[in-house]
Design brief:
The chain is an alpha+beta fold and 689 residues long. The protein has 23 helices and 19 strands.
Length: 689
């Protein structure tokens, strides 16, 4: 009996270990963005070792292997901390150490208690990925992991009746629902500290400078930048201003973000607050409410229509009238704005002291770009003191001298001091950066304060949802010039390629753009439909879950339970039932016994009929021994002869293996029919035993 108990316990642990191997494997894949490749390979190796031991394909691992792997994982994490720095890599190091510890514990499982600990650790590990990834499809993947983990939990009690397992699983889920609801309501309202980026993290979107070498690659990146959802009519002309570039670099001959804006950004803290009276007051003015739903960019900059104001106290309007969040945007986030439609000019609060004027008129070395300087001199003489006329003459020069819009402009020697001469008099083709930089440079040469602004233009309108999809390929730059005591937006691309102003980037009719769009898989109808479907699902996910606010009446849970209470309860119960059912099926799948031989099933029918005649087979008796007992009881009659023949067929199949399962089953069925008739005859004689 002791041996049978130990064997049952081993089989019981074996089923759970299979499920833990499966769940641990999927959980590691979920955390691939956080785990170091060395740690991942080590953990997968541990899973392979444990799986081989469970399958008995390899012998049990030696004890020293645990110590060796422990030292290896710790040494790897210490080396990574030294390489990347404690401040930069500390959070990732903790995650790697946690996963490595769980893997080492998995290698040491020996008792029932270890199995319980490992299953609980798997639940935590599967849920951990949602801290680092907020995509809706990752939630579905995480649910798969949780079902496997739940099946492992159920398999710990797989020897118990199904009724007990169902009650236990329902009770477990019901206990978890209140905690999950609290976490859902509370956690999204805080910016997670582990998502604070550092200097080495990748940043997406617009860069810190605008020149001939920037934005070009961004125009070929069709990934989502943000969505703009409007409460009213969508403006036809949509310039989403994101950054300003007033600082001129004489070496690169490009425009940079100003130093004082860097200082302003560095002064922001989680406790910083901007008084609303520091923002322009547009109370009582006509406007359109819109929300910007940003994708993670690891930047603080927030694109907005100019001019816009916001009731959000956690974002700031800088002196250069660009909006900035107090935290780098490391997760999908929404911002509410009001677009002022009555104003056409915006008298920005840039202090016009001597230092500021010097910055906005800086053109670098006086010997650089002599042809451009001569052209500006001629245009200035023609315009006189009329700054607006001078700006118009620059646009006329672009329109009348064969300038073209191109994603792949002719190469310009960026190390030369005369890059504007090359562009204006030789190449005469390029994208928005070329034209905005050149015009800003020419305005400054004429003594007009000007700077380049960067952001996004246009976007794809989705009329069903009354929102605009803006991609990185919609990145754009234009000119902001101080003319007639107001800052005015001037877009030189409007005279080169008017389609760029009113259409999304890929909807332009310009030959260079059309050729690129048609040759790429991006414009394939099936691919485009599928991409739009995924983005629509992701958008609903961001709006209802990631940007959920408990105080907002439009919150997903509040609205859904208030408007459709019965449906909400039914959906909740159904989702719980599906999860429990799938987990139980998976647990039973791994705990299912080996299929019984069909020939043996037929032989057991003979034993059953003998039992009805009063003769019971004992557990330890072999077929030959039981046949001898039957002969002693019934004598050497037709009954015992048929039974002896059946035993010979079973022995030939199971032990001698001279006949197969199907053939043995067929022969036993024929013998059983004769045996059943013999039993009836024997009963007819009413012989007693």
């Amino acid at each position: 009996m002791a041996n049978n108990t130990n064997q049952a316990t081993y089989q019981h642990q074996r089923r759970t270990l299979f499920l833990i191997c499966l769940g641990f494997f999927f959980s590691i894949i979920l955390l691939y963005k956080v785990l170091n490749p060395v740690v991942i390979i080590t953990c997968l190796g541990i899973i392979a070792i444990r799986y081989g031991e469970v399958k008995r394909t390899i012998s049990e691992h030696p004890a020293w292997l645990n110590n060796l792997l422990s030292v290896f994982i710790i040494a790897t994490i210490v080396a990574l901390l030294t390489l990347y720095g404690f401040r930069t890599y500390l959070v990732n190091a903790f995650i790697n150490l946690l996963v490595g510890s769980i893997a080492l514990k998995f290698l040491e499982i020996r008792q029932e208690r270890d199995l319980n600990i490992q299953v609980i650790a798997l639940f935590f590990l599967s849920s951990l990925t949602f801290v680092f990834s907020y995509d809706w499809y990752m939630l579905l993947y995480m649910m798969l992991c949780l079902i496997i983990d739940f099946a492992a939990l159920m398999s710990l009690s797989a020897c118990r009746p199904l009724r007990h397992l169902f009650k236990y699983s329902v009770k477990t889920v019901l206990m978890a629902v209140p905690l999950a609801a609290v976490l859902f309501v509370v956690l999204p309202r805080f910016n997670p500290f582990w998502q604070m980026p550092n200097a080495t993290q990748h940043q997406t979107g617009l860069g810190d400078e605008v020149g001939f070498a920037s934005i070009g690659e961004l125009l070929q990146d069709h990934s989502l930048a943000f969505r703009a959802v409007f409460d009213g009519k969508i403006p036809q002309e949509r310039y989403f201003k994101t950054m300003v570039y007033p600082q001129f670099d004489p070496i690169k001959q490009g425009f940079l973000i100003p130093k004082d804006l860097w200082r302003y950004e560095n002064s922001l803290t989680p406790f910083a607050r901007q008084e609303l009276n520091e923002r322009p007051d547009f109370a009582g003015t006509m406007g359109t409410i819109y929300n910007i739903y940003m994708e993670p960019s690891n930047r603080r900059w927030i694109p907005s229509l100019e001019i816009s104001t916001s009731p959000n106290e956690n974002i700031f309007l800088t002196p250069y009238t660009v909006w900035m969040d107090k935290f780098p945007i490391t997760q999908p986030k929404s911002f509410e704005f009001k677009y002022i439609t009555e104003e056409y000019f915006y008298n920005r609060s840039v202090p016009f002291d001597r230092a500021t004027v010097k910055v906005l008129l800086d053109t670098g070395y006086h010997s650089a770009n002599p042809q451009t300087r001569q052209l500006v001199k001629e245009l200035r003489q023609e315009a006189g003191n009329d700054d607006a006329r001078f700006a118009q003459l620059i646009l006329e020069y672009f329109r009348k001298n064969g300038f073209t819009y191109s994603l792949k402009p002719l190469q310009i020697n960026l190390s030369s001091q005369h890059i504007y001469d090359q562009f204006l008099f030789v190449n005469r083709n390029g994208f928005c950066n070329h034209y905005s930089s050149a015009m800003t440079y020419m305005l400054r040469l004429a003594g007009i304060p000007a700077m380049t602004e960067g952001g996004y233009l246009g976007g794809e309108i989705v009329e069903d949802g009354n929102y605009v999809i803006v991609r990185n390929s919609d990145a754009h730059s234009w000119v902001s010039a101080y003319i007639d005591h107001h800052w005015q937006r001037i877009d030189p691309v409007s005279v080169i390629e008017p389609d760029r102003i009113n259409n999304a980037f890929l909807n332009m009719r310009a030959p260079a753009i059309t050729e690129y769009a048609q040759t790429g898989v991006y414009q394939n109808p099936a691919v485009k439909w599928f991409r739009n479907l995924l983005e629509a699902i992701e958008f609903k996910w961001n709006m209802t879950v990631l940007n959920y606010n408990f105080d907002d009446n439009s919150g997903f849970i509040t609205r859904f339970f208030r408007e459709k209470t019965i449906l909400a309860v039914i959906c909740l119960l159904l989702s719980m039932s599906v999860m429990v059912y799938l987990s139980l099926r998976l647990a039973k799948l791994f705990s299912r016994k080996k299929k019984t031989d069909r020939a043996l099933v037929q032989y057991l029918r003979f034993i059953s009929l003998f039992k009805k005649l009063g003769l019971t087979k004992r557990r330890y008796e072999t077929p030959e021994q039981f046949s001898a007992v039957a002969i002693k009881v019934f004598g050497d009659c037709e009954l015992t002869k048929l039974f002896r023949e059946a035993g010979t067929v079973l022995s030939d199949h199971l032990y001698a293996e001279t006949i197969g399962e199907k053939e043995a089953e067929k022969k036993l069925k024929v013998i059983f029919n004769s045996f059943r008739n013999a039993v009836k005859k024997y009963r007819g004689k009413r012989k007693t035993f």
